[in-house]
Amino acid sequence: MKTQTAHTCKTCDKSFKYLSRLVRHRATHSGGKPHACGECGRASSQRSCLAQHRSAHAGEEPHICGQCGRAFTRLSTPHRHQRVHSGEKPFVCEWCGKTFNYSTLLAQHQRIRSRERPSQCARCGKGVIWKPSFRNHPKSHSCSDAAWTSAS
C-alpha cells in the first residue's frame, strides 16, 4: 500500500497532497505574480492562468453554453453561466436573506451593507466597494492607477 505524504504550508498550515499544489499555494502569501502578459501587462501567480488570459486576447472562446450559444474562454464559466438560465441563486446574504447567482455579487452586497471599502485611493483616501469602480476615479483629480491600494 502506497502512503500519501501531505505537503504543508508553513505560513498557514494548509495541507496539499501534491508538492506542486503547495508551491502554487505559496504564491498567495507572497503576493508575487511573476507571469505577465506581454500584450496588456496583467500579471498572474500561475503560468496556467496566464495562458488562459492570453487565449482571451486571441479571441479563443472554446467553451459554449448549450442553451444560448454564448462562448467563454474558461471551462468553468459556462457552468456558472447556467444559473442565468435556471434562475438558481445559491448565495444568500446572512443579514437580509437576499439571494445571488454569483459569490462576487454577494460579497459586493455585503460590503454595501457593512460600508466596507476594501480598496482606496492613496492620494485622496476615497474608498470603493468594487475594484472596477477605480476606472473613473483617477480622472476626477488626476490620480494615477498606481495610487490605488487594496486592504485585502
TrEMBL record:
<dbReference type="GO" id="GO:0008270">
    <property type="term" value="F:zinc ion binding"/>
</dbReference>
<feature type="domain" description="C2H2-type">
    <location>
        <begin position="91"/>
        <end position="118"/>
    </location>
</feature>
<keyword id="KW-0677">Repeat</keyword>
<dbReference type="GO" id="GO:0000978">
    <property type="term" value="F:RNA polymerase II cis-regulatory region sequence-specific DNA binding"/>
</dbReference>
<keyword id="KW-0479">Metal-binding</keyword>
<keyword id="KW-0863">Zinc-finger</keyword>
<keyword id="KW-0238">DNA-binding</keyword>
<feature type="domain" description="C2H2-type">
    <location>
        <begin position="63"/>
        <end position="90"/>
    </location>
</feature>
<dbReference type="InterPro" id="IPR036236">
    <property type="entry name" value="Znf_C2H2_sf"/>
</dbReference>
<feature type="domain" description="C2H2-type">
    <location>
        <begin position="35"/>
        <end position="62"/>
    </location>
</feature>
<keyword id="KW-0862">Zinc</keyword>
<protein>
    <submittedName>
        <fullName>Oocyte zinc finger protein XlCOF15</fullName>
    </submittedName>
</protein>
<dbReference type="GO" id="GO:0000981">
    <property type="term" value="F:DNA-binding transcription factor activity, RNA polymerase II-specific"/>
</dbReference>
<dbReference type="Pfam" id="PF00096">
    <property type="entry name" value="zf-C2H2"/>
</dbReference>
<keyword id="KW-0539">Nucleus</keyword>
<dbReference type="InterPro" id="IPR013087">
    <property type="entry name" value="Znf_C2H2_type"/>
</dbReference>
<feature type="domain" description="C2H2-type">
    <location>
        <begin position="7"/>
        <end position="34"/>
    </location>
</feature>
<dbReference type="InterPro" id="IPR050527">
    <property type="entry name" value="Snail/Krueppel_Znf"/>
</dbReference>
<dbReference type="GO" id="GO:0005634">
    <property type="term" value="C:nucleus"/>
</dbReference>
